[in-house]
Amino acid sequence: MPENLLPNPKGPIYVIDNSFLVDYLVNENRPELPPEPGTWIAPDLLQLEFISALRSLILSGAMTEEESLNLLDDFFGISLFLFPTTKEQLLRCLTLSHRFTVYDAAYVVLAREMNATLVTHDLRLAREAEKLVEVFTGE
């Protein structure tokens, strides 16, 4: 998946995962963003992971359904390019499944293909992914 699939990429390309996105949108003390502005991308499974995280927050009593709907509006307001996962990417995810969950592998595969930095708050993912791609955790 070449970088030219992005309309007018500006600066570095960042693949954002759900752990970072939820922390950024939910927490009052927002995590630090990478120092250089860039283009944000993710596999389209991010949408489902984000909804699942909101559901968990509702069920735990950490947020109301109304608050979750506001966060969903915030999610759709982010300048973020979502990429459908291709058959070839699915196969790469499967080959990496001994190192990552297949969900996490989707972010790593996209970061590798796009020569992008993976932005995550999942420290276990970060430790393993940094063997394959550049990683930013904000810490």
TrEMBL record:
InterPro entries linked: PIN-like_dom_sf (IPR029060), PIN_dom (IPR002716), PIN_Pae0151-like (IPR044153), TypeII_TA_RNase_PINc/VapC (IPR051619)
The keyword Hydrolase appears for this protein: yes
Keywords assigned by UniProt, alphabetized: Hydrolase, Magnesium, Metal-binding, Nuclease
GO molecular function: hydrolase activity; metal ion binding; nuclease activity
Pfam families from the UniProt entry: PIN (PF01850)
Keyword Nuclease: yes
Ranges for domain PIN: 14-127
Gene3D superfamilies, alphabetized: 5'-nuclease
PANTHER family found in the cross-reference section: EXONUCLEASE VAPC9 (PTHR35901:SF1), RIBONUCLEASE VAPC3 (PTHR35901)
Full protein name: Type II toxin-antitoxin system VapC family toxin
